[in-house]
Design goal:
Layout: H1 31-39, E1 43-47, E2 52-53, E3 60-64, E4 67-77, H2 92-95, E5 99-101, E6 107-110, E7 118-127, E8 133-142, E9 150-151, E10 153-157, E11 163-164, E12 170-174, H3 181-187, E13 188-192, E14 197-202, E15 208-213, E16 221-227, E17 233-235, E18 238-240, E19 244-250, E20 254-259, E21 264-269, E22 272-278, E23 294-297, E24 300-308, E25 322-330, E26 337-340, E27 357-359, H4 361-370, E28 376-380, H5 399-403, E29 411-412
Parallel strand pairs: 2-8, 9-18, 11-19, 20-28, 26-27
Antiparallel strand pairs: 1-3, 3-6, 4-7, 5-6, 7-8, 10-12, 12-15, 13-16, 14-15, 14-29, 16-19, 17-18, 20-21, 21-22, 23-28, 24-25, 25-26
Length: 426
Amino acid sequence: MAARNHAAGVRGLGIGLTALALAATACTTSEAETQNNASGSVELSITPGAGEVAPNTPVRVAAEGGTITDVRVEQEVVDEASSPDGDETGDGDLYAMTGSLNGDATEWVSDWALRPGAEVTVTATVADGSGGTTEETAEFTTAPAVAGQRLELVSNFPNSGQTVGVGMPIVVNFDLPVTNKAQVESAMEVVSDQGVTGAWGWLDNDTTAVFRPEEYWEPHQSVAVDMHLAGVEAADGVYGIKNHRLEFEIGAERILTMHVPDHELVVTTDGEQERVIPVSNGAATVRFNTTTSGSHVLMQRQETVTMDSSTTDMPEDMAGYNTTVRYGIRTTNSGEYLHEASYNTNIGIANTSNGCTNLRMEDARWLYENTALGDVLETTGTDREVEWYNGWGYWQLSFDEWQDKGATGAYATTGGTPGSVHGEGL
């Protein structure tokens, strides 16, 4: 499905910043507007116009004999169970409703779902060819969220305010499984200063959505993610209750490359070689102690790390270990790190580790202080390939393969999303 096309000035149309307590339902006009309607020159309709509706119902405004000049959607959550803890009730920008206007400005459709358990007021204005205007108002309510069926955000990576590397995925973890993936993907709008093509994919648990570009991000730019989750039906009867905004920076293009037989790690920043670091990688006597080849992303940093073989899948016939090291940078879920290993006398000479990349103290400290989450580690020279789901190894998949992990496919991060958040048939 193609991304929505918002003409200049249209996307901002229909922002309601004030929460009003409005009951019942009505359509009203001013005296001048009544004259316009009486003449039959302008017809204006708003749906829904009354009653209680599902939160993922679209708001539609249609005009005949004139053009739509303004639509305001005001929402006040009145159902306590549908109001999330810690919600910013005064944050109009977070819940502002935008809409898409057709080419001749006669039809307007809301972009996002409505907040559950809310009283909603829609006010639309239409101008006719003689300079007159007509205004209509509709009032209705949305069904409340049900206990145990409220989709909420558990965590996201990166966090707002962070500066990350060009390989950084956007990882969103939910508290409940998502089956209506297309609607949830379409509710999460990614916008970057230097637009790229990217797509959402899902891990097998159906609770983790990941966005990655087709290629690494362009360095030195800002990225924002608006998660318009309130009112989206994530699964049968399960609705989001809160919107979120994530803002972060893409820093330098820092690429670490390592051909394991060479016993060295090369750090390149914005195309310039910055440092060559001697290393010792996995001994590769068995699969367990073979360093993985492939595209890795630096995913966690710990100044002190305890390496305990009892937490791994080490074969029983191998000698166990439990040691504390400094300056650990994690690259896989299965336990691979770049870390200080002062005890290893083979650094720069031979590969003798249990699979991690061992460094001298000075080099480990430098790497820890001069890299960021999301920086890329490209490793070659071993017969063990890192799995795409092992850590943030999503770059192991081609972009076509990655799109198969999602429901909506690719879209450009220049505004808009790949589909509709509204329910089928609504």
